[in-house]
Amino acid sequence: MRSHRCVLAFSLSLIATISTPCHAQASNDAESNETTDALASVIVTAQKRTERLSDVPASISVVGGDELAKSRISSAGDLVQLIPNLQMNGAIGNSQPIYSIRGVSMNDYSLNQNAPIATYYDEVYKGNAGLLGVAYYDLERVEVLRGPQGTLYGKNATGGAVNLITRAPKFDTDGYLTLSTGNYNRFEAQGAAEMPFSDTVAARVAFTIARANGWFDDLLPGKPNEQSTRNWGVRASLLFRPSDEFSATLRMSTSYENPIHAGIYAQPGPDGIGAGVYGLFHSLDPALNPQTDYFPPPGASRRSNAANFQNRDSNRTYSAALTAKYELSDALELTSITSFDRGTFYYAEDADGSPLSVFVDPFYDRATQFTQDVRMASKGDAPFQYLLGAYYFNESVLNSSALDLFTDIDANLDGALDYKDCLDGFPVGCDIRNRFNQRKTSTAIYNDDSYKLSDQFTLRGGLRYTYDTASLSNFYSQVFGTDGVLVMNLIPGSDTDLYATTGRHFTNGNLSGKVGLDFKPNEDTLLYLLYSHGYRGGSFNGQAYFSSEELSTTKSEIVTSYELGAKATLFDKRLQINTSTFYYGYQNQQFIDVDPVTGAQPLVNLPKSRIIGAEIEILARPIRAVTIRGGAGFLNTRILEGSLGGQDVRGNSIVNAPPFSATTAIDWSVVEASWGQIWLRLDGNYSGKRYFDLQNRPSTTQGAYTIANARVGWKSSNDRFGVDLWVRNIADTFYSTDKIDVTSGFGFIYNRVGDPRTFGATLTANF
Asked: Could you tell me which residues come within 8 angstroms of residue 243 by beta carbon, excluding any fewer than 6 positions away?
């Protein structure tokens, strides 16, 4: 209780301070900050209107394209280093992160799931991990919204939204090219060019390509290092604007990733990797089973393993989206966003990281998605402003995954590795595979309105009705021997038809919404109260292998949020402060519960939990040459009701929710002269202790850690050319982005590991 009381007291005292009228504000605006010490106004479109961030009554963090480049944010997983109360689970990879905002997340790495944190590319929702691909290039900005979403954005979400806004075509002729090199034989190139074809048509083309050797050592002779980089992406945008009232932008993109899969640090248990299984069969016949349970060699780095199985991931995406805007009148605008996406994603990892074949888990995902969002929004300065929209989402997924368990053991001691070992020693010597089709549709109508009660007070509200349907078809889980012979059907469990299938179906209807009140005592101060109710539809378990009971369907997830926030611009526009405090009632959180003995992975609901927390973000320009950005997040989470495997987890913390996190960045223009400018950037983030399972076991806990980065560069006075040197993770801090304890059944703790120290140089040319 003491911790969240401190959070509330801190937030209320800060709100009281910044709502007090301050010195007269400077009359200059964003554009004049080059000749004064004033900060530029941050412009966002989070509410589907172009507004100053300081005027938006919601908790939003914005990172501009230049800052993304200076911090070397090149993948989705890197974004957490700049946003307080944003975490990520790296169970799948940096390009397909499982985000956590204010503790709202999913502890599920199945590729068929739609996350509670919605990801958007240019207002297009991307529901499936296979559709995300390579996206962090040629961005204008990234907007991170905290809290339930649904009255403004296409798809409903319980935890928040991450919006990537790319640079749109303009009627100019310009472009840029950046080339980077670094350790691990890194080579990167990014660039873009745009030009008008006529007075009404303009185009922009952007690309990225990156290559680097792996930094995770494989100790086996002849094996390349893991965690390599190998990707490219291309995006083409075409703008058609025949009049001031109408515009249409067509965006098409494709990308491909093909790196050697992420290295797994398998922390051995007391019996070694294998949990004593190899020792048992070795004792029965040492000649037929010469392997014993594995321990890494003394002195082996935690960024190394001895994986005997390696694989290249494959993630290919195709995307097309058409955004059309038409001003029906001076007071009304119509917007239509139509999109189609297709992607495939395959990865397979040596989960035990040893020369044994304890545990290999391949995943394959093929997804297609169609969305249509249509909305009408009012414009102008009328007291009543409204937005009315309709949304349609259709997703089809083909998914398959497998568990290859102890496939190098001769379980029946007959001198051959074949299907008989699986029959006699199940699950030893077995390849267990599932496969299914999933189809989801979501239809919704939504509105978001505001009414200006007076010059200082504004009342806000919004509603959304969502109707979801989902079907799972052609599901089966089969067991094969190491020779490929089919021996069993586990789901649906037929003894007579080994190809038998089953399915599931559900429908959900939900009414969600929000209501809020703003108080604006002066031009540069905003206070707001906000109540919102978020909804996430049910899910199917893509990790069902052993029995039909695992093939569960979860209940809908609900988050009820109460938030008090304040924003202020102070000291002649040299300081901006945004702060908020909140309480979440969290019902039916969906997550995978991994059995450490059998490897079974049921998908279940956590009935009730609560989250209390706060954020503060600052942007300061104490002198013209220095800009400081920083933020802190506070969380106090507690499970109120729930049990796992018969164990009561009430009172425990929820996953991926550190009690304290912080970010900071300092930009300093060290020297400015006729020959150019020398600049310096220092940034970093701190993450407190967090848990990766609801049992809060010490074995699956990541302790607090700090990451610090630096960059120094020169650019010409006309901004045409620049060169800089950079280093990330200066202290070479070791940390895990995911942990799973399977010591009892397999003899190790699975660790997905964060990036080590990297450094290099970048050359930039603008034309």
From this structure: none
Tell me the mean pLDDT in the region 4-16. Answer: 47
Q: 233: which 2 tokens?
A: 């992406």
Q: How far apart are CA 726 and CA 549, in angstroms?
A: 52
Sorting pLDDT into bands at 50, 70 and 90, what band is 37? Answer: low
Contact criterion met (CB below 8 Å) for 113 and 275: no
| Residue 72 structure tokens | 């070397």
Q: Mean of the pLDDT values across residues 253-272?
A: 94
| Nearest partner of 218 among 185, 275, 262, 259, judged by Cα | 262
Q: Are 218 and 226 in contact (CB under 8 A)?
A: yes
Q: Are 437 and 472 in contact (CB under 8 A)?
A: yes
**Rounded Cα distance, 519 and 456, in Å:** 5
Split at pLDDT 50, 70, 90, the class of 20 is very low
Q: What are phi and psi of 10, to 5 degrees?
A: -60, -45
| Per-residue pLDDT, 377 | 94
Across the range 634-663, mean pLDDT stands at 92
Burial class (CB in 10 A: 0-12, 13-18, 19+), 199: exposed
Q: Please state, in angstroms and rounded to a whole number, the distance separating the CA atoms of residues 723 and 712.
A: 9
Q: What's the one-letter identity of residue 174? A: D
DSSP per position, 100-130: EETTB--B---TT---SEEEEETTEE--SGG
CA distance 279 to 259: 34
- Position of tokens 């190098």? 408
What burial letters (b/e) apply to 38-58, b meaning 16+ CB within 10 Å?
bbbbbebebbbbeebbbbbbb
The sign of the CA dihedral 373, 54, 163, 14 is: negative
Q: What is the pLDDT of residue 95?
A: 67
Q: Cβ distance 338 to 371 under 8 Å?
A: yes
Cα dist. 576→129, 142, 147, 163, 331 in Å?
36, 19, 21, 22, 31
CATH, domain range 2-766:
2.40.170.20
The model's pLDDT over 83-120, given as tens digits with 9 standing for 90+, comes to 999 998 876 766 677 889 999 998 777 888 888 999 99
- Reported as type and span, the H/E element at residue 8 is helix 2-18
User: What is the distance, to the nearest Å, from the Cα of residue 90 to the centroid of all Cα atoms in its chain?
Assistant: 9
Distance CA 740, CA 691 (A): 10
CA 635 – CA 640 distance, rounded (Å): 16
Place of tokens 């969290």: 586
Q: Give the predicted TM-score (pTM) of the model.
A: 0.91
Q: How far is CA 420 from CA 192, 196, 482, 597, 654, in A?
A: 58, 68, 9, 23, 43
Residue spans per domain, the chain: 2-766
Whole-number Å distance between alpha carbons of 402 and 433: 4
Burial 633-665, CB ≥16 within 10 A → b, else e? bbbbbbbeebebeeeebeebbbbbbbbbbbbbb
State the residue for tokens 């349609």: 392
Structure tokens at 657: 């929710």
Burial of 13 (C-beta count, 10 Å sphere; 0-12/13-18/19+): exposed
Residues whose CB is less than 8 angstroms from the CB of residue 285 and which lie 6 or more positions away in sequence, other chains included: 410, 413
The H or E element spanning position 14 is helix 2-18
What's the pLDDT band for 600 if we cut at 50, 70, 90?
Answer: confident
Over residues 9-26, the mean pLDDT reads: 43
Sequence-separated (6 or more) residues with CB below 8 Å from residue 681: 70, 71, 665, 666, 667, 668, 710, 711, 712
Handedness of CA 145, 147, 148, 152 (dihedral sign): negative
Quote the CA–CA distance of 167 and 139 in Å, as a whole number. 5
